Amino acid sequence: MKPEKFNGNESLETFLTQFENCAAYNRWSVEDKVAHLPWSFTGAAAQLLWGSESLSYVKLLEKLRWRFSGKGMEEKFQTELRRCRRNQRESLRELAQYIQRLMALAYPGEKSKLAKHIASEALLVALSNTEFELKIREREPANFDDSLRIAQRYEVFKFAVESRATGRHRLNRHVSDGYASDRSVAGYGTTSRKSENEVTSVTTSQNRSAISIYWNICY
């Protein structure tokens, strides 16, 4: 088992928990931890290694927490949480997971009702759809999971109704086009019959005129 990489953008506590689990599974000593922990750093976290060659494991952890678990980092993630908006093709599940991650970074260890309310509010605002947001609020969701469940149900129903409406529109167009085609053919037949009747009428009239002239000449 190998430890995950850490670049400073993810949750430090999550990374350290995974690292300790990996160390326990591999039965690493303290010296092994000192060797493997710096190897896991990338990006901005790797800069922490400058001048840290002689630090013990405990001191290395202290420096790591001071750099990536300070109040400034929490405020950064709180701001990111307030500005979070749903991407065009992002599913509700993906959006919810991202918000939960930001909550863990912005309010580490917080499990109060206030934290759950903040997460639920962040999800509704991130939808960027006033009508969608109002419909969920009308249901008075009790917590974050409840808000997510209502949003998912509404989106499924909305998709089903719109798909059904689109199918009816296509069917109506097909029927309308077929009816117009039938009327056109029927009209053509009527015109043809009318023309034939006119020709027959003219021919009959001409025949009658010829007979009348013949009788006048003969008698």
Percentage of residues in strands: under 5%
Order of helices and strands: HHHHHHHH
**Helicity range of the residues?**
over 70%
Structural class: mainly alpha
Low-confidence stretches: 190-196, 213-219
Overall average pLDDT: 78
Distance between the termini: 128 Å
Radius of gyration, in angstroms, nearest whole number: 40 Å
Would you count the extended β strands for me?
Answer: 0
Number of helices: 8
Largest sheet: none
Shape: elongated
Explain what the structure shows.
- This protein is mainly alpha-helical and 219 residues long.
- Among the domains are: 12-69, no CATH class; 74-160, no CATH class.
- Helix content is 74%, strand content 0%.
- The protein is built from 8 helices and no strands.
- The chain is elongated, with a radius of gyration of 40 Å.
- The protein starts with 11 loop residues before the first helix and ends with a helix.
